[in-house]
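Please describe the entry underneath.
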Amino acid sequence: MANTQLIHSPTLESVIMVEETIEKYSQECGKYQLWKKLPRKMMYQTFQAILDYLRKSGKIFMDKDGCIIWIWNPAIIKKLEKESLIIR
């Protein structure tokens, strides 16, 4: 994303919409199919920027077949923090 100039920066509302869609369709489809399942239209470039952000923040990854998988689990993070296994 550092080398890519964004024409339209994603809004927080857009990021949340993409996150919720990925959670709902995790392991079911690739980028293009997921983009088509969004409840509202969005530029594909903006969608890709959001995916890049989510990948870098450790919330998603893509498997070898190109399926996007939601991996963020706040409950596990809170449990690990409570047990002092990770520190924020």
Observations:
- The first helix runs from residue 12 to 25.
- Residues 1 and 49 are 7 Å apart (CA to CA).
